[in-house]
Amino acid sequence: MTGRNALPVPFRAPLPPDRARRMRRVATGLLVAMAALFALARTMLGTHPAWDWVLAFSEAALVGGLADWFAVTALFRHPLGLPIPHTAIIPANKDRIADTMARFLQSNFLIPTVVARRMRSMNLALVLGDFLDRPSGGEPSRIRGGAGELAAEVLESLDPERLGGQVKAGLLHQLERLEVSPLLGQMLAAAIADKRHLPLLDALIRWAGLTLEDNEEMVRQIIHDRANAVLRWTGLDERLANSVIDGLYRLLAEVLVDPEHPLRHKIEQGLEQLAEDLQHDEALRERVEGMKRDLLANPALARWWMGVWERLRQALIGAARGSGGGLGGPLTGMLSELGQALREDPALQHQVNRFARRTAVGVATRYGGQIVQLVSETVRRWDARTVTDRIERAVGRDLQFIRVNGTLVGGLVGVLIHLLNAAL
């Protein structure tokens, strides 16, 4: 049954394997054997003096075995199902056992002074260094293979569109908060100050020359259309167009080869003024921000980003599973270098161990009470049968040895008493 009205299922912790079952059968079998031996000795009593000794042994062994069976059984349940007082001790005291376990954990492990003392005797940094710098025997290490495979599986398991959308949303949010106009102005001003704008300026001049070359006919047509009838009748419009085009070519060439050309200075002044306006002109800054917002809201930008993200994701997956360890190779190298440093640098070991010790003490101080409460509440939520089974399976083998020992020791005590009785 499922849904809101479904009854809660009691929590049942997974039980350890029952290793006491065989010893339980041995102890019970020994008790049954003593009972059979006792019955046989009673039947054969008087036929031979040795049977007196057998009877004394079996009788005392039977009493000792039954007493220990009752004591062991009374810890976990009612013997023979009878509600005898002071039996089924563990189920009846389940909550007190939970509190005792929690107090034991707190008083022996979660006291800050105890944690600090135990951590001070441990060199965690050296252990970690040995693990990270463990040689791989010429084969790819588990860290390398695991890192690459893990990275590939994570990238494959995540929804590409959803993850790409989340990354895009994060970038857009940051770009919306970023005011790009002052940033562009500062970048342009720094480029002009360091003369890094000159190659770009030369490239623009060359581009203007190539553009003019590709559009000569359009320039000629414009001049022809705007010339009056007299110029067209005399053919001067063609000569005028050639002069204009040649003059533009000559001007661009002079600006390109002469670093001190006045037009170049005018262009540089314009760039300096643009850098100043980008930083301090409110109207221009608002126009730039508006262009930025329009660009970010353009659906074409979203489609472009999703294409870039998918190519990046596929490239990362291919690198993670590629030959030579992929992403795991650099990661393994860095971890190996860290392991060597942890093994060989006592100062670094001291720092790492001190950090680990302070962290453990801090956890014990801040969360010790919550950990103890978690242990107590967890055991309290277990039903009585689960607690009983877990404890019995954990210590039941030793308890069954007690039954065996009680049976044998009881028999030997019976023989000793019979010996003393015969001597007296």
State mean pLDDT (0 to 100 scale): 77
Unreliable runs, pLDDT <50, ≥5 residues? 1-13, 136-140
Helix amount: over 70%
Note the total helix count.
19
Rg computed from alpha carbons, rounded to a whole number of angstroms: 46 Å
Largest sheet: none
The N- and C-terminal alpha carbons lie at a distance of: 74 Å
What string gives the helices and strands in order?
Answer: HHHHHHHHHHHHHHHHHHH
* Beta-strand content bin: under 5%
* Total strand segments: 0
What's the gist of this structure?
With 424 residues, the chain is mainly alpha-helical.
Which short descriptors sum up this protein?
19 helices; mainly alpha; 424 residues; disordered N terminus; rod-shaped
Written overview of the protein:
Helix content is 81%, strand content 0%. By secondary structure, the chain is mostly helical. Among the domains are: 21-92 and 383-423; 98-122 and 345-377, no CATH class; 195-284.
Topology:
Elements: H1 21-44, H2 50-76, H3 89-92, H4 94-108, H5 112-120, H6 124-132, H7 142-157, H8 160-177, H9 180-193, H10 198-214, H11 216-226, H12 229-234, H13 236-257, H14 262-280, H15 282-297, H16 299-320, H17 328-344, H18 346-381, H19 384-423
